[in-house]
Amino acid sequence: MVRAKKFLGQHFLKDENIAKRTVDALAAQSGNILEVGPGTGVLTKYLLQRQERLKLVEIDHESVAYLEKNYPQIGENLFRDDFLAMKLDRLFNGDSFSVIGNFPYNISSQIFFKVIDCKDFIPEIVGMVQKEVAERMAATEGSKIYGILSVLLQRWFDIEYLFTVDETVFVPQPKVKSAVVRMTRNTRTDMQCDEKLFVRIVKTTFNQRRKTIRNSIKPLLPDIAFEHEFMSLRPEQLSIAQFIELTNAVERKLEI
Fold it and tell me: In this structure, what are the phi and psi dihedrals at residue 218, rounded to the nearest 5 degrees?
């Protein structure tokens, strides 16, 4: 029996296959892997069986002590640090690396946005998150759960919902299901629009998702007449390419 990461509280993972499936989902073509929040090594022991160069970051001092005792071969590649505060660009001497982890539910979105900030050298992420978050991440336009997280992550990464992790594989059982997702860097190299304005438009429209674009976008264009073919649509109907088109149209209007 393997102890699960603390984001599930004091729960124990009794199905070793889940840990192995998660690790096997990581291609790690760069040859470098960073495990975020290894805890007591639920994924680490399988990662150590691979040939890639492995580094780990863990903020909890008790987990660090456990890992140092039980996996001494990790040595100086274990960092007691806050992943969200780390400068990642030199972690592997400037080389690209993949990220894997059982991510804490309360900061999983922050972890993904940290990865986006480093998108040029993180080509792949595999992680376990709350099932509902995984579903939103992978949702496509037209879905009721397609939203801010979907658009802002998918602008740079292709996202796959890999498999559901049932609460019954933990002892005691948590109150929610989990899921493992894979994010793979897509081919987009440039947003072809003002990225800050793009983010503002996405957040503004989805924060009023029951309204049409015509009504939700008004705060960005006060006292400015604006017409566009998307005005009668709701934000969940727009693809990322269409949000980019809308952003460029709004920017041109603001410059007049």
Answer: -55, -40
